[in-house]
Amino acid sequence: PGEQGVLENHGYSLAEVAMKVHAPQLVRRDAPFVAPAPALDWHHMGAAAAALDGSGRRSWLGRG
After folding, report:
1. Which of 51, 13, 49 is nearest to 34 (CA)?
2. 20 to 30 Å CA-CA from 1: which of 12, 44, 47, 60?
3. What values do phi and psi take at 45, rounded to 5?
4. Longest CA pairwise span in the chain (Å)
5. In which element (H, E) is residue 10 found?
6. Rg (CA), the chain
7. Which residues neighbour 57 within 8 Å (Cβ) at sequence distance 6 or greater?
8. Are 42 and 35 in contact, with CB atoms under 8 Å apart?
């Protein structure tokens, strides 16, 4: 769940910036960005790094 939350928030953040840059007419200026996993405090690098620790490791049977 930690890795999923970090990656989900990152993807939505990138989409928000892309919309503001490439299609600003579709973005309401008075609506602040809210991450999909706001209850998880992933904006701090320590929490994000801990959640992603080992996410790149795989075995023959998949992750974990």
Report:
1. 13
2. 60
3. -60, -35
4. 49
5. helix 2-22
6. 15
7. 63
8. yes
